[in-house]
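Worked example

This section walks through a single chain of length 157. The input is the sequence exactly as stored; nothing has been trimmed or padded.
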Amino acid sequence: MKDTDASLPPDALARRLTEVYDLVGPLYRRAQRSVELGLTTDGLSVGVRAVLTLLHRNGPMTVPQMGRAQSISRQFVQRMVNDATDRSLVESVPNPAHRRSSLIRLTDEGRAAITGVLDREHRVLREVGGSLTDADVTTCLRVLGAMLTALDHVDDA
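Given that input, the structure is written out below as tokens.
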């Protein structure tokens, strides 16, 4: 086992994870700006895109479920759903599990819009390079997942 494979002591781990946070913020903001600047060419806001992506990946969901999944307020999600509804990208359907909380699902237009966005993003992400391996990406996902879990208590506040 190499030294880089050994578990880090808490103080060293905290310093290294700070480096991750230092990169995640600018990465998120640049990705958000690329959407806002029209990289997607379809006029979707970041919020509407997030709603469409959730529905594409998970199928129909309620507004509260989407809010929890994205750690954002139900009110913000509702505004994004309203915008997407106005553009005929999503529709509300009865929820057999909860009478007052409708399910939101993609329309054919919404499915086409998010598929187009994801296809364009896929082409851009193919250019990342850097000789990254599957193990690198798996480790990245594990680290980010652990960092997100460590902040679960923030949603309880």
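What to look for: The two ends are 41 Å apart (CA to CA).
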